[in-house]
Amino acid sequence: MLRIILIIPIIGAILTGQFVLALMLSAVAGISDALDGFLANNYHWKSRLGSILDPIADKLLLVASFTTLVWLGLLPMWLLWVVIGRDLLIVIGGLTYHYVLGKFELLPLWSSKINTFIQIALVLLVMIQQQWMTELRQLVIIGKWLVVASVINSGTEYILVWGVRACK
User: What is the CA angle 117-122-124, rounded to 5?
Assistant: First the structure.
């Protein structure tokens, strides 16, 4: 819940050019996510609600961050659509699977975790570039294409894994 609550101040900080504040709030969100995962895994504090809220919090923060960076002209609109397209594909596929074939437990694939990491890294890199290091332009370009490759890889893996499960 903390990550969801932090979305508004993070986006506000980005919009007003307060990238240091946005980075600090993002660090709090990241640490809370890591702590939540650690506690859930090591103390078996897992719940259905937590398994739903965790990826939702990640997606809301990432989509809000990407949208804000697009609004400011720091990321291209097409990249936002690539990211959202993958997420929509997964949600539509999951809902179709659920209503056509039956209940399932949505477990994130490693490619999805890597995809989330690369997207977060790009958002942080853009903020760092804006605050301190304008010469990171080439690295940001590489980051954009890593996001595209990761989105394609992760989306394809979801299609393949859930397609095979649907055929069984």
Answer: 95
Integer Cα distance of 155 and 142 in angstroms? 20
Output the pTM of the full model: 0.87
Chunked mean pLDDT (size 10), the chain, 168 residues: 90 96 92 84 79 83 95 97 93 83 75 91 94 89 97 92 78
Domains contained in the chain, CATH given: 2-167 (1.20.120)
Show contacts of 60-67: CB within 8 Å, 24+ apart. 60/3, 60/4, 60/7, 61/3, 61/4, 61/6, 61/7, 61/10, 61/29, 62/116, 62/119, 62/120, 62/123, 63/87, 64/7, 64/10, 64/11, 65/10, 65/11, 65/14, 65/123, 66/119, 66/123
What tokens were used for 25?
């709030």
Distances, alpha carbon 152 to alpha carbons 65, 129, 146, 156, 157, in Å? 20, 26, 10, 6, 8
- Helices 2-15 & 48-71 angle (0-180, nearest 10): 0
d(Cα 99, Cα 152) in Å, to the nearest integer? 25
